[in-house]
Design goal:
The chain is 14% helix and 47% strand. By secondary structure, it is mainly beta. A hairpin with a 2-residue loop joins β7 (127-134) and β8. The longest helix has 21 residues, at 2-22.
Length: 146
């Protein structure tokens, strides 16, 4: 009886960890960003989910940056003059169901502009349509799952 109880107590945290891992949102993972103007890869972004369910994304690698170790010199918030590599560019996104996300913002570091953002998984989750808008001016990109 004691061994059974001990085994159950040890197994419970492992089961909880397993369930938490399987509960990760489908958008979580690494994505290659594609510049909408040039069609060329620009960076790799890791998208994560916080304990409260919000989605965020961080640039983990720049592809062919214009200069070594660029900073966000045009940013006007807490990211001003911080390195772009490692920078959180997606904040506060929330799942809306059906592979759609909204309610958050996205930063375009080369412009220093923060846009209201929406995202949608497409092509069976292999691609992510990301759009950002300021008033009626919207820009969008298609990112590719890595």
């Amino acid at each position: 009886m004691r061994k059974t109880l001990m085994a159950a107590l040890l197994a419970a945290p492992l089961m909880a960890l397993s369930m938490a891992a399987s509960a990760a949102d489908p958008v979580v993972g690494r994505w290659k960003t594609i510049d909408s103007e040039t069609g060329k890869p620009k960076s790799f972004v890791d998208i994560t989910q916080a304990a409260n369910g919000t989605i965020s994304g961080r640039i983990v690698e720049l592809i062919n940056p214009s200069k070594p170790n660029p900073t966000c010199d045009k940013c006007k918030d807490d990211r001003r003059n911080k390195p772009i590599t490692g920078m959180e560019i997606i904040r506060g996104m929330k799942a809306e169901g059906g592979g759609e996300y909204a309610g958050g913002t996205i930063l375009k570091p080369d412009e220093g502009k923060v846009y209201k953002s929406k995202m949608e998984l497409v092509d069976g989750g292999k691609k992510l349509e990301v759009s950002g808008c300021i008033a009626f001016i919207c820009k969008s990109q298609t990112w590719i799952r890595q």
